[in-house]
Amino acid sequence: MVDVLSQNEIDALLAALSSGEMDAEELRKEESQKKIRSYDFKRAVRFSKDHIRSLTRIHENFARYLTTYFSAQLRTFVQINVVQVEQLPYDEFIRSIPKMTILNIFEAEPLEGRMVLEVHPNVAYAMVDRLLGGTGIAPSKISALTEIETMVMERIFSRAFDSLQEAWKTIIDISPRLEALETNPQFMQIVSPNETIALISLSTKIGDTTGMINLCIPHVVIEPIMSRLSVHHWFVSQKKSRAPEEIETLRQRVNKAKLPLIAELGNSQITIREFLGLSVGDVITLDKKVEEGLSIRVGDKLKFMGSPGAVKDRLAIQIDEIVSEGVEEFDE
Q1: C-alpha dist (Å) from residue 118 to 152, 157, 164, 217, 249
Q2: Confidence (pTM)
Q3: Which GO BP annotation is one of this protein's (predicted)?
Q4: What angle do CA 22, 26, 31 make, to 5 degrees?
């Protein structure tokens, strides 16, 4: 954290510099020296800022898909937004969540390892209450799940993973599958305590009930595809590839497109008076000699050079030269 000087401290510093008590050159030397920063090996930095930005974009889509899914299932107003994406040790994540919560442990092939979707009890119980005919209000006291509540939660959250699959489609095709549903975080050990995880926090509002949904993704799980989370890969993957049928249709349409083919005998400039005075038999002098080739244009582009002639009593032109692509005409 940067210390902010008060106005009195600033005045005292300026006065010391003016009186010679402090040397500006010494201050510059101290500033130029290498600063040592402590590094906590328990909080190893495994995700770059680039990775965090990509994870944020992916799970912003995930939040939109979840909003649509839960709104349809619960038939009430649901709003889900990404609040924060951060990296921290797995042990710190376990200590930060309630002792009694809803933990959806799942796998996502072809990724190896387990991940966790943690749902705050207020949100989870509001969903169950709504699905069982209630108004969607969480109970004031959280108790152990009954068998019916467990089955309801497993069903609704297992289908919610379809939204995660859709959100990750631009990076990798995954098949999330709910493995277990736990309520005590102390019994859930998916990675070692010091393993770095990416924690995606989603603020959730169901009617008047609010709470958090946290997605825990261990670094070791997505390490094989970390290169795909770069900005370059992200934008390349956004380019849509055309299907072969679409390409063939486009080719057929281009082949049928009509363009004017114009053979220019030459150019000439005359006045309006001369133009109005033209009559049958008059001769207009062009800027090209008889032995020079004619310019043949496709549309407004010069493509060929040719010679005039006749075929079966019809005017014709023979192509003598193909103008190289990219050649530009310049007026002399």
Answers
A1: 16, 11, 14, 11, 48
A2: 0.59
A3: positive chemotaxis
A4: 120
The two structure tokens encoding residue 49: 């800022």
Q: For residue 32, give the DSSP letter.
A: H
- Residue 183 in tokens: 């309520």
pLDDT of residue 268: 85
Task: Give the separation between CA 101 and CA 151, rounded to whole angstroms.
Answer: 16
Among the three residues 193, 216, 233, which one is the final residue of a domain in this structure?
A: 233
Domain that holds residue 191: 49-233
The verdict on 105 and 213 lying in the same domain is yes
**Residues 166 and 186 sit within 8 Å (Cβ to Cβ):** no
**How far from 303 is each of 119, 325, 328, CA to CA, in Å?**
67, 8, 10
Mean pLDDT of the chain: 82
**Do the domain assignments include residue 297?**
yes
| Percent helix / strand / coil, the chain, rounded to 5 | 40, 25, 35
